[in-house]
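Thread: Newbie trying to understand structure tokens

Hi all, I'm a second-year student working on a class project, and my supervisor (Dr. K.) asked me to get a predicted structure for one chain before our next meeting. I've only ever worked with sequences, so writing a 3D structure as a token string is new to me. If someone could post the tokens and maybe explain what I'm looking at, I'd be very grateful. Here's the chain:
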Amino acid sequence: MRPNVPHSSIARAASPPTRVILARHGETRFNLQHRMQGLCDSPLTAAGEASAEKLGLGLRDAGLAIDAAFSADTGRHRRTAQLVLRAFSGVSGTETAALRECDFGGFEGMMLSDAVAELTRIAPGWNPGPLPGDAHFDMLDLLERIAGATVREEYPVEPPSSAAERAHALLEDIHRQHGGSTSLAISSGITVLALLRRLQITAPGLERGMQNCAHLVLVRREHGWQLEDGASPHCARDMHNVRQNG
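---
Reply by user tm_fold:
Sure, no problem. This is what the structure looks like when written as tokens:
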């Protein structure tokens, strides 16, 4: 005898989950120079453009169909989305401030080491905590400490936790408006890492950051967002490049 299962329960069980392909933008000139790149912008390098196109082709060849696309509203993110979407006909991108990189305030365009040195000079007693190269270095923690110093009130630094909240709000909007579909979201390194920490998602190598055009697939389950595929093979980067923010 067929069990008496409510039709609504069958429909929920058959509904596909919402997926978001979360990727970092292609390599930029500031990335090559190891400069802090938040709201400031620099164009993609030739390698950055090539890797963005390769990402699109790789996603398509893996059988991932993109139904909607979102990117931060700055040039490097816009261009990355355009190049990725060349592999998907009929999909146009939507720009949103929710996917922007952290605003590095008065330290935009600086080397991270120079920003730490400057903050140490103008804020006596400030403790940066572990620095790049230290065994317990944590980029998000360092940026939270920089933001918490509040020594440049006319142009403050946005804490990574704030970037995580706006990115998470976008994920929830995507789930509400595009439930059961697969969306592309192009953001930046610190914002992605902060969002994953907000979601309590970990993967091997993520503590060292993401390469340009690395991607993760997030899936919306009953209890929230989870990592579906794990880190892509080229997700982690070595400590030599850990200063490539943005």
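A couple of things are worth pointing out once you decode it. The chain has a mean pLDDT of 86. The longest strand covers residues 215-221. Feel free to ask follow-ups in this thread.
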